[in-house]
Amino acid sequence: MLQGKDLILATRAYAKEYRGRSWWHVIITLVVLAAGYTAVFTVNPWWAKLISGILVALTLSRMFVIYHDFLHQSILQHSKAARGLFTVFGWYMLAPVSIWERSHNYHHAHNSKLYTSSIGSFPIVTKEKYLASPKGERTVYMFIRHPITIGMGYIFMFLYGMSIRSLVSNTGKHWDSIVALVFHFAIGTGIFLLAGWPGLLFGFFLPFFISLGLGSYLFYAQHNFPGVKFAEKDGWTYHDAALASSSHMRMSPVMRWFLANIGYHHIHHLNPRIPFYRLPEVYKAIPELRMAQTTSLLPWDVLKCLRLKVWDTAKQRMVGRREIYS
After folding, report:
1. Would you state the pLDDT for residue 223?
2. Distance between CA 47 and CA 306 in Å, rounded?
C-alpha cells in the first residue's frame, strides 16, 4: 500500500499535460461561454434568459478551474497567448493573478495547519480559542463562516477579499486588483448600456453571483467536511494534509465537466501539477486515492458541511454550534 512520499511519487507520471488537449479544453469552454452569452442577449422570454445565464455561470466556473490550473503551471506553461488570456480572465472574475497566486499557493503549502488556517482559506480555530476570544472576534469569525457569507462569494470573497482588501493591504504588490475592479465594472457598465437592465441582470450579476458563490462554497467544503483532520504545526505533513484534509467531492458527469474535475481535490492537493483532465485517470490508477473522505453537492451533504464551525481538539473533529458550549 502506497503511503506518504511514495504516494506523491506515484502521481508524478501524470503531472504532464498534452498541449493540444489543454488548448482543446480552453477553446471548447470559450465556445460554450460565447454561446451562453449570445443566448442571454438575443433570446426574449425571461425564462430562456435565466437558463442561458445559468449556463454562463457554470461555464465561467469551468473556465475558472482551468485558470486555476494554469496558475499552478499544470497546463500551457510558457504560452504567451495563455498568459494574456488568463490574466484578462482573472480581472474579469475579480481574482487577479497576484493575489490569487500568493494566497492560493500559501494555502497549498499550509493546508490543514491550524495556526495558518485563515490565510488563503476560510478561518478555522479550536474550540478553546473560540471560547477564549472576545465577543467581537467570535462574531466576525461566525460571520465569515456563515452560509450566507459563503454563498455571497461574489461580494465577500472576490469583490472584497480578492480585490479591495488586497489593494488596500499592499497596493504596490497587488496593483492588478485596481485593474480588475475597473475592468470588471466597465464590462458591467457596457452590458447595461447595450442590453439594459435585463442584460445586466441575466448576463452579468446572475452569472457572477452563481459562479463565484459556487466557487466560494467549493473552496469551503473541500476543506470543511465531516471527517476532516487538522494538525498543529509539529504534527503536519504535506501528504497527510492532502488525503485527510481535502475531500473527494462526488459529482455527476455533467457537474464534473462544468467544474473541470475539481471534485478530485485530494489528488489535486497531493500533486497540483496534474492537469485537471488527467485527475480521473489518476483516481482510477492508484487505489489508495479512492479511500479519501467524500462529500457531494447534494443538499444534505451541503448542510453537513455548513454546520461545522470549530475544531474540537479533544474529539479530534469539527463541531457545530451546539457542541461548542457542551
Report:
1. 94
2. 30
